[in-house]
Amino acid sequence: MSAPQLADLDAFAAVARARSFRGAAYVRGVSASSLSDAVRRLEARLGVRLLNRSTRSVTPTEAGTRLLERLGPALADVASALDVVHATDDSPAGMLRLNVPSIAAQQILPPLLSRFLQAYPRIRAEVVAEDTFIDVLAAGFDAGIRYEERLQGDMIAVPIGPRTQRFVVAGAPAWFAAHGRPQHPRDLDPAHCIGYRFASGLTPSWELERDGQIIRVPPAGRVITSTFEIGLHAAIDGLGLIASFEDFLRPALEAGQLEAVLADWCPPFSGPSLYYPSRRQMPAPLRAFVDFIRAQSE
Fold first, then answer.
1. Is the pTM of this model over 0.70?
2. Mean of the pLDDT values across residues 245-259?
3. What's the rounded mean pLDDT across residues 134-156?
4. Are residue 156 and residue 293 in the same domain, yes or no?
5. 188 and 139 assigned to the same domain
């Protein structure tokens, strides 16, 4: 059996991660049919089905999942080696692939990434915003953004964005006029709390803390959403209370559309970090981005 072509392996990995031929084709700037042909060639060479295909979804088989887990680091090393070939000391080139939570994609990354890409015109960026916790290297990403409680011990972390943040509980003035202002977390009725649902299906409880005491409130309001903006507008329109990042809510707070409550139960916490695996040879775009982020804090 002849060895599979690297391009076919790369095509399979792209489709398996995107769970879609069309989605992977859009990211890669190629046709879906070319990716389909590549995957078929790979399956024929290996003599095993790697992807389950239906009219609605594409999912890796057990063999495909095992292959993808091993391919991620290998393809990343290949990309790193090619970056070294194509880059010069003063002009790194290549693709920077980042996996970030939705709130970071909205509030933290855009201005930083724009300045970075302006400073390094030969670097391209691929950013995937999702709120699940993954092995970034196995999934084909160079780095991710997460908070310290979600960082793995063997990762290198570099602070990015604000050094401290906090959640605040807020509602529209009309809401408080109709329902009163809570003076204690136990005054919060879960049925009045707007919830945020992760892609996993989890809707986390609100956690309010003071003097070491933590009170959890499971949101079960009229609006449960996986989109921050929908929750924000629902709160502004008086459909319930919202608990979210203060930076995200600040424009509405300053405009008087929302008012914060229970401030003494909303302590600050450490801001996010750019994290990446320790590797002997760091991809040139990632090295440039790490240096850029560190320079911002000096």
1. no
2. 95
3. 72
4. yes
5. no
